[in-house]
Design a protein that fits this description.
The chain contains 2 helices and 10 strands. By secondary structure, it is α+β, with helices and mostly antiparallel strands. It is globular. The chain is about 15% helix and about 45% strand. The strands form 2 sheets. An 8-stranded antiparallel β-sheet has the order 4-3-2-1-10-7-6-5. A two-stranded antiparallel ribbon has the order 8-9.
Length: about 170
């Protein structure tokens, strides 16, 4: 009887561990740069301020709730990101721009990051027609943090993008 009780307790603990996330508070600032594929001269210094909670689940998509402010993109200041839901380490980076009288969203692009936000790659969508936005692997904008120069940014972008299938063909040069 005692053995059955311990087995039941272990099974219950296993179920709880598999359902509940491992939560981590994130409060950091990273310096990096914005670069353009195919343009070795283009560079803008960029700072990212990240404040929120990252939840790491065992059997479902990880999430982040909070703020990610990007110094080169004014719409990100003071706006909470919609809960990021990661699929294969990538999540759409969409901001809530709702006001008392207006409901709105602003899409920056996609974000790939290590679970501790120590390394970040943002794929920046750009307007193409009207309000439509897209990213092009031939000449698209991307933000990498931390990075001090283009070579370091390209190396980090390659490493982070290898984890994701649709970015694996991008030549970051």
């Amino acid at each position: 009887m005692n053995r059955e009780r311990w087995i039941t307790i272990i099974i219950l603990i296993g179920i709880v561990i598999s359902v509940l996330p491992y939560s981590r508070n994130i409060d950091m600032t990273l310096d990096g740069g914005m670069y353009r594929i195919g343009d070795p001269i283009y560079h803008e210094h960029t700072s990212l301020v990240i404040k929120g909670v990252y939840r790491n689940y065992l059997f479902k998509d990880n999430t982040f709730s909070g703020f990610i402010e990007i110094s080169n993109i004014d719409e990100t200041y003071g706006s909470e990101v919609f809960k990021l839901r990661y699929s294969k380490s990538i999540a759409p980076l969409i901001y809530d721009k709702s006001t008392k009288y207006n409901i709105g969203q602003f899409s920056v692009g996609q974000i790939i990051n290590k679970t501790d936000f120590e390394e970040i790659l943002v794929i920046v969508s750009e307007p193409i027609i009207g309000s439509s936005k897209s990213w092009n692997g031939d000449n698209g904008l991307f933000i990498v943090a931390p990075s001090d120069n283009r070579d370091e940014a390209i190396e980090r972008a390659e490493l982070l993008s290898k984890e994701n299938g649709w970015l694996s063909a991008v030549e970051w040069e």
